[in-house]
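Per reviewer request, we include the raw input and output of the structure prediction for the construct analysed in the revised manuscript.
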Amino acid sequence: MKKFGIGLLTGVAGTIAAAAAAGFTYHKIEIEPLEEEQAKFDETEFKSARKAAHSHGSRY
């Protein structure tokens, strides 16, 4: 019965480690590039809005 408990504990630990690795990999491959793209878009949008306000601002 002792070997069964050790095996069960090892299996549970391995499953948790695999799930954590899968979650980390998913975040690196799918989520992070989207966040970087959104940040770049926001930065470009901010610069564009500043230029538009400056060039089309009040003439007086």
